[in-house]
Amino acid sequence: MSPNDRPDRLRILIGCDTFAPDVNGAARFSERLAAGLVERGHDVHIIAPAQRYRRYRAATEVIEGQPMTVHRLPAVRWLPHDWLRFVWPWRSKHYARKVLSAVQPDVVHIQSHIVIGRGLARIARRRGIPIVATNHVMAENILDFTVMPPLIDKLVLKLAWDDALRTFRMARAVTTPTRRAAEFLERTVDITGVIPISCGIDRRNYRPDPSPREQRRVLFVGRLTTEKRVDVTLHALARLDPALDVRYDVIGGGDQLKHLEQLTQRLALQDRVTFHGRLDDPQLIEAYSSASVFVISSIAELQSIATLEAMASGLPVIAADAVALPHLVHDGENGYLFEPDNDAQLADRLTEVLTAPHEEWLRMQNASLSGVAVHDINRTLDTFEALYRGEPVPE
User: Fold this and answer.
1) Which residues form the Glycosyl transferase family domain (predicted)?
2) What is the value of pTM for the model shown?
3) In the prediction, which pLDDT does 51 show?
């Protein structure tokens, strides 16, 4: 029997306000989820912004090695951001009607309550189509890119979360990547029953290397935005004993790149810090494999796919003790936590890891590999398939 003939095959429409070629946690999750579902034989459609303002278009795109239909909507760039594009909010319901009529999905899975997901949820509910909603949003992710006074920001944020609650109440299930993220959402919008489901990771794609490192290398992978606090890591690096001869590899782009390059110059770290920009997958996997430790100083992670990738690569992780990062990094086991924005404490943690005997480093590596096992992508896919069908969620 071919996958197209499976009696349990679902037609799934995933609504995304950010998707490939965007590089961020929400987009990467949506891509991996969609590709995994296609691999399991489901008919997957994506509705997402186009990379420029042009007519609506549906075409087959290959995402994570799997073909799927992507419905691209006319979108404009949000000028305060270096790449973010959005659909005009007053057109979201129009496109939702158009795509829902064309696809006739069994279930709709929205990845955002902001524009595309908001319109899609409202039209899907009117048509009696089950909705699953996943939240990837925190206040810090939004407010960094507004151009309004703080007082207005707070008002807009309250109105946005009030509207999010109305959207989430339309859903059969609301999910988010971790238990801490679920608790955050339940406190913020006053709902209950949010289900924590890991973004998931295919550990087969990564190459843990147990051999001693010839060079002490600190790694960061992610968007260079304010909430990522890469500047905290730079200040910590400046505190380290120069005899350690530490190198810092920063992979990713973002609106803070120029600021971080200038800070690197002011701290006289230009010979020790390399901004690589975006790398392709083989280069990224090699960077993970050759690093000594992964550092994430972010204060706004609902999970952090980059941290999962680092753990799957067998790296000790040093992370800010904020939001969901303690869910992945267990202090003294697979790495260390430090007080957010405390670069002196981060420098101490870096020194501990970078000067640890190799046996201790291997212990932390093995703890990372054990800890990431529960985030296997197949467990994630099993859970979402159950939600799509209205079945009990597996343990």
Assistant:
1) 210-359
2) 0.83
3) 84
